[in-house]
C-alpha cells in the first residue's frame, strides 16, 4: 500500500521535531508531494506533523 503526502503549510516557527519529521518524509517546500510506502516509520512522521501535511491513499 502506498500513500501520497503533500506539504500544505510552511515550516517557519514550527518545533524542531516537526520540521525533522516533514523533512524525513522528503518534503522541503509547500506543495511538495511524495508517494511513499505505508510503514511504521512513515506513519509515525505523519502523526507527528499531521497538521502540516495532507495524506491520501494511492493504489
UniProtKB/TrEMBL annotation:
One of its GO terms (molecular function) is structural constituent of ribosome. One of its GO terms (biological process) is translation. Pfam families: Ribosomal_L30 (PF00327). One of its GO terms (cellular component) is large ribosomal subunit. Residues 3-53 form the Large ribosomal subunit protein uL30-like ferredoxin-like fold domain. It comes from the Bacteria. Keywords: Ribonucleoprotein, Ribosomal protein. Part of the 50S ribosomal subunit. Belongs to the universal ribosomal protein uL30 family. This is Large ribosomal subunit protein uL30. It comes from Persephonella hydrogeniphila.
Amino acid at each position: 500500500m502506498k500513500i501520497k503526502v503533500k506539504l500544505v503549510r510552511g515550516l517557519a516557527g514550527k518545533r524542531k521535531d516537526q520540521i525533522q519529521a516533514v523533512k524525513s518524509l522528503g518534503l522541503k517546500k509547500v506543495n511538495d508531494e511524495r508517494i511513499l510506502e505505508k510503514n511504521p516509520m512513515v506513519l509515525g512522521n505523519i502523526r507527528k506533523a499531521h497538521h502540516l501535511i495532507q495524506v491520501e491513499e494511492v493504489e
